[in-house]
Amino acid sequence: MDNLSVEYIEDDGEITAVDKEKGTVTVRLANPEECGGCPAAKICGAGKDLSDVTVHVRDAQNYHKGQRVTMRGSERLHRRAIMLATVLPCIALVAVMVTVFLLTGEQGTAALCGLGTTVLFFLILYMARNRIAHEFVFEIVEKGEN
To answer: Is the pTM for the entire model greater than 0.85?
Structure first.
């Protein structure tokens, strides 16, 4: 039986900006629609339009605008982002709704508490974005000659 697990997620793109002082390059993804369907795209570093990703590099001076590159992120990164963006909020939502309903017998109260918990979860996730950002990094594995 073949092992169907994917170790890395790779995507091609073009460098749109280089910040030599910060040691970062901004890469516009060649296939942004792949990230568009992902509920965790904001967590792993995709930009506002889901097509730009900032990548920290050691040798920013060796990159230039317009250069074609291949980026790679781990499948573990992807699974963690999905867990934070979808699975954990759903578990919290259901757990709070069931608990409140069992304690009060009120469906409306349970629904409002569940929604409030979900909002609170995403607010906490947003406030912790700088603390968890280091876990969601991409690397450039191949540079084009453009």
So the answer is: no
